[in-house]
Amino acid sequence: MKKVLLGFLAVIVVVGSTALPAKTKVRAYYSGDSIVYNDTVIVGSANTESLEIFKLEDQKLTRFVNIKPYNYRFGTYDSFFDLKFNQEGGRLYVYAISGFSLYKYDISDLNSASLVKSSANSYWEWYSRVDKFGDDIVTISARGVKVFNHNMEVVDAYDIKNDIPYNIRSTNSNDYIFNINHDQISVFDRGARKVVKNINVDYRSASGNRSLYFDPIDEMVYVVDDYSAKKFDLNGALKATFDHSGNPGYDVASFGNENLYFSNGLGVVKLDKSTMKLLASQVTSGIAGAEGWAMGLKVVANSTGDKVVVFNNSSILVLDQNLNKIAYSRAGEDTRPDVKENLFLRLNTVSVNTNSVVNLTGGGYYPYENLAITLHNTKITARADENGRFKQMLTVPAVSDQAFNNQPQVVIATSGTTTIMTAREATDIKVVGEQSKFNYSISLEVVTTK
Predict the structure, then answer these.
(1) Which residue segment(s) compose the domain that 213 sits in?
(2) Which tens digits make up the pLDDT trace of 183-210?
(3) Are residues 313 and 232 in the same domain?
(4) Of residues 182, 209, 185, the one with CA closest to residue 196
């Protein structure tokens, strides 16, 4: 059975390797992350230059976040390039990188992303990846590895570099960082701050995204090169292998149980971790109704067992522990309406008296989208036109009593025993798109007389 299966895979490999380049998509999924939160499988990728996050529900991958970072300085949208999920204090966060900046969003409601904090470095270090090394959030760039705490402050750094930052990994280890460079895995001891072992592997090509899996329980390193899946101990001794017909070997993953999974372009293979013997396999080309090429791989587990997440070029796939399809989302499928311009808001005045009317205009939202306008705890609903623009007249409320108590008051008139005073308070007008979740604010000075 094993020989028949591998022979079939070998035939597919020839077809896949010759057909794939002619049909490469501009937008494709090749990497990302996955996590289980409150028994719900969450999947994310930034390969489309947007932060896309999905949840698995009713055998469907439902996207609930699809955003780009907004550059207020230049009034444009930038791109995200990588993401990493992390649970902190019972809440779910996602870290994402864009250029010189690291972002942290709260996605605990599994409905939207709320920005917690962003941090831009001042030394022009362009981040290539964000990851979790053991318990630490890290960024990886041409300058090496930076370690952050949960307040997004750099607390440590390692001089580990690779022309392909994807190939610097730690998986579950707090003690080691693994660097796949050409045909060698360098094992970096974080405590000793040096490379303690080099392990030889065999790739036909010196370049390409490669990954591995480290099990901290048995302290074994699992990797798939272009010829076989291999199991090493930390001394570099080869313990077991499984020859595959895929070309090349991309990723290896497990959830710490007895199952090991790897991707080799044409599909996914499941092995017994202890013996490295075949348990199941699945060719992923055509499984989601489109041509695929299995690269990045993540394995998580919820109450119903292992979930194998495959970044399959033409789609993101979710397979069960028997490698049967559960759900998928195709690359290039973007249900967002066209946005014709950057977000903006304008007022016909910057200062206005209480109970006066101001004219608010704005744009950059989805066409015909419902908008929620908040002004001094008052909420108003508006609707964008076919171009994503809107106009709304707003009646300005009075400033708070606290403004009179805390701010200098100006006497503008005195008549007998009556003194007329005025106070000023700055307030924000915020407009949020109901569908897009785009939000923008503008400040207005309110003048109240007593």
Answers:
(1) 29-330
(2) 999 999 999 999 999 999 999 876 788 9
(3) yes
(4) 185
